Amino acid sequence: MGSLGFWRLARTDPGWVAAVDPDGTEHSAGELLARANRLVHGLRELGLQPGDGICGLVPNGVDGLTLYLAALQAGWYYTPINWHLTGPEIAYIVADSEAKAYFVHERYAEEGTPGAGDLAADRRFAFGTVDGFRPVTDLTDGRPDTTPEDRTAGATMHYTSGTTGRPKGVRRPLSGLDPDDGAELMTFLLTLFGITPGQPNAHLITSPSYHTAVTQFGGTALHMGHTLIYMDKWDAEETLRLCERYRVTSSHMVPTHFKRLLSLPEEARNRYDLSSLRWMIHAAAPCPVPVKQQMLEWWGDVVYEYYAATEGGGTLATPQDWKKHPGTVGNAWPISELLIVDDYLEEVPTGVPGTIYMKMLGVRFEYKGDPAKTEANRLRDYFTVGDIGYLDQDGFLFLCDRKADMIISGGTNIYPAEIENELLVHPKVADVAVFGIPDEEWGEQIKAVIEAAPGETPGPELAAEILGSLQGRLSKMKWPKTIDFIDEMPREPNGKLLKRKLRAPYWEGRDRAI
């Protein structure tokens, strides 16, 4: 140990550009280090101890990065919050994570303000001006930028939506390591892809930083001495422009990005010099084989794929692996193991689909405050997120189906139970089912099938009224794109909804049931 980790690198060479904000503002490693140090001193004065948590509702850029770097060197848990959520959804996470400080960017003041819930007024901080929040400068002004004493590695605690609706924090025990040594261990993941440390390397952040993988890949690239280039809102041509402008070497993307890049006019695609690209990594949703083939033809052998979960463990497909096994999401990482089992939890033979279980050696996690859920998803020391797949004879994993209920739209997991619960409270709804149907651009879109209450007239007017009732209660990204009405919901005598029966007509003629 000893050559990697942001804080160590920044002390040795404060001059390298560590991050570039979406507006083009460059931030040196030294400046970022000073900011993070001041924040640690300020929050310690507020009484924060190792093991405590902080939450941030902040856009992509150095504000969120400063929170991350402060927490990870002071032994705190940092929870970045999805900025599409509503006030009540945010307040749930702030309370459930037991946050000792909550940071909101003025851009998200409208939902972020009620999101503070019952948190004491002196623990609410704003980047910019937010009524009822103290400016972050209250914490940092006049504080020393010197290295804090007693540094110890913190961790991120991301919230993953549960199929039962309420999100759960994925919490790992703190390592007790020196923060730089802990960060250096994190870099193992990127070295699996062949990524090398040091300059000149730049990592393009294309997606919201509240996603686990985006935080993980961006943070780790920074710990390897790479420059982080932040995008505020994703745009296909802007992606290519930034790749050329900053000589981007790596990024983390989802198949929806690929589809939009490929639909750019040929002239736009050829306008930019992309010769710097080396490790363009994608995950979060299955990538159609033709799309991946076109990306490899355009960008060359720099497109890597993996399959993993917030909870830990995963697979990796190099460009060469994928060409030999088209459609695969890769084989197990050296520190990870896969197990495919049937409904009786017995291992299935090669080529036979079953539920995918994974484990990562030496890594334990819990769903915060929910030991029952933690155990329910375990099999010995393996866990599952409920995906269905099979292994070929060479040990390469292929996904067949997501857990029947989960919707993946643009790389984001959306859980129907939460949406169904909100729709069911409407007095004109007798019964409801929510599921994903094919969408050429997003992979899947949200469809609701509703059985109207007796005496109500199904049709566009009723659909609009029902959708409108979600305003302020459910973030827009979870709203059904379309609503169909049905006379009677197909249910078994025991009340179990036959959702596959409802989904099937929409997926007819498709080669995969994702």
UniProtKB/TrEMBL annotation:
For bias kind Basic and acidic residues, which ranges apply? 140-152
Q: Report the residue ranges that make up the AMP-binding enzyme C-terminal domain in this protein.
A: 418-496
Q: Domain AMP-dependent synthetase/ligase, which positions?
A: 7-360
Q: From the Swiss-Prot or TrEMBL record, what is one GO molecular function term?
A: medium-chain fatty acid-CoA ligase activity
Which UniProt keyword terms apply here?
A: Ligase
Q: Which GO terms describe its biological process?
A: fatty acid metabolic process
Which family does the record assign?
Belongs to the ATP-dependent AMP-binding enzyme family.
Q: What species does this protein belong to?
A: Acrocarpospora phusangensis
Q: Which Gene3D superfamilies match?
A: 3.30.300.30, N-terminal domain of ligase-like
Q: Which domain of life is it from?
A: Bacteria
SUPFAM superfamilies in the record, alphabetically? Answer: Acetyl-CoA synthetase-like (SSF56801)
Pfam families on file: AMP-binding, AMP-binding_C
Keyword hit for Transcription regulation? no
Identification of the protein by name: Acyl-CoA ligase
Q: Give the residue ranges for region: Disordered.
A: 136-155
